[in-house]
Amino acid sequence: MCESLERIEQLDKCVLFFFCGMRISPRTELYEIERKNGQAKESQNLLEPVFYRSSLISSRQILTQVQERAGGKRNWIIGDGGDHTADIISRMHAHGYSGPLWEHLIR
After folding, report:
1. How far apart are CA 83 and CA 104, in angstroms?
2. Of 64, 75, 90, 107, which has the highest C-beta tally within 10 A?
3. Under a CB-based contact definition with an 8 Å cutoff, are residues 57 and 1 in contact?
4. What range does the domain containing 80 cover?
5. What is the pLDDT of residue 101?
6. Are 88 and 27 in contact (CB under 8 A)?
7. What is the pLDDT of residue 16?
8. CA-based max dimension of the chain
9. Are 15 and 106 in contact (CB under 8 A)?
10. Domain count, the chain
11. Mean pLDDT of 14-24
């Protein structure tokens, strides 16, 4: 996770959406591992998202580390973004911005 965050910090001009866990997709190595572990079932329709979460780190620990690294960067959206992101979007609408707003968060 630390390596991923270090690499993410090197990205320029992008908006990032952080969620806790990695979505399991069919016909991937992660799917095969989690099918054996019982989290993903062969008959399961994965259009309804199923997420892998390591037992080695809690969701709270991940969230804390991401929030610390984000340090208030407005182009790092954590989860649904909460009240902070809703406030930014409301202010952008009030200033006449419409449509996809993410490109304006990288300026």
Report:
1. 18
2. 75
3. yes
4. 2-105
5. 67
6. no
7. 82
8. 52
9. yes
10. 1
11. 83
- pLDDT tens for each residue of 34-68: 888 877 777 777 888 888 888 888 889 988 999 99
Q: Which residues pair with 52 in a beta bridge?
A: 22
Torsion sign, CA atoms 55, 58, 63, 64:
negative
Which tokens belong to 2? 């630390």
Residue 29 has pLDDT above 90, yes or no: yes
Q: Which two tokens stand for residue 42?
A: 């062969």
What percent of the residues of the chain are helix, what percent strand, and what percent coil, each to the nearest 5? 45, 10, 50
> Can you read off the two tokens belonging to residue 45?
């329709």
- The CA distance from 62 to 42, in Å, is 28
CA-to-CA dists, residue 34 to 22, 23, 31, 51, 105, angstroms: 11, 11, 5, 10, 36
Q: What pairing do the DSSP bridges indicate for beta strands 51-52 and 22-23?
A: antiparallel
